[in-house]
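Annotated sample (chain length 299).
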Amino acid sequence: MITLKQLEALNWIAQLGTFERAAAKLNTTQSAISKRIQELEASASVPLFDRNQRGARLTEKGELILALGRQMLALQDQILELKDGKQIPARRLRLGVTELSALTWLPRLVSALREAYPTVTIVPEVERSSDLYDRLAEDTIDVIVIPEAFSHPEITSVRVGDVQNVWTARPGLVKARRSLGFDQLAEHTILTQGARSGSGMFYGKWLKANGVVFQRAISSDSLMALVGLAVAGLGVCYLPRQCFRPLFDSKKLSIVPVKPALPAVPYAAMYRNDRPSAFTAAVAELARKACDFSRQLQA
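Output written by the structure step:
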């Protein structure tokens, strides 16, 4: 078994050049230092020093083990600093969100995270819901906020909010004074979010359950691409009502009344519960408090 004392002996031998000086530095005997190195070599199954050279010259494998050992010793120092009440070491957060969250309340969450964890390094990922969920399952991301269209026993979901979508189109594209039925809506080209989008999956299931099939459809996983297509007058699209209200106010898009209305899409902050961490749970709670899809780029 490799111990920190063995790695500590290796570190000081490399720094001071001899076993004797390392023993003096660690307030022990030269034989004790030699024993630690022998035990480390036995555990690693590689020679650490070139015995054909004078002095304490490391082998190539010995240099690699020294580099790894110094990382372990540095982690030990950080743990001891926590005990002594010193500054908390930097923490890294891999945070995944979809376009809609990035466009609306992500700045608020970043501010809250920096206030609660001043040393945190935030690594943002803006991707499709299914890609983020796959990354979470692979343990290559820590917390994601996506539509609640996925579930797994090892993943905790914390509901953060709902998004109300409405059918929209360029003014004049749909000529109707009354609410349309889905049969009338299907007469137009429909712009929809793709199958790897959480909202696309959610509404795809809902439309299928209501027996709705659109013969003419254009699909995109990019929310902003769909906005551009809708403003260009290429079809009817469902969009978050509050977030894109400025487009309605400026008459670039108009709301198309359709019955039945689209259900709200639930959003959740998700993290793995088989990797116990108070930090990821706290991040999910901060996301719940910061979440607000009503307007863009909230600081």
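Annotation: The domain at 91-162+266-290 is CATH 3.40.190.10 (D-Maltodextrin-Binding Protein; domain 2).
Annotation: The beta strands are 91-97, 120-126, 143-147, 155-163, 165-169, 190-193, 217-220, 236-240, 254-255, 265-272.
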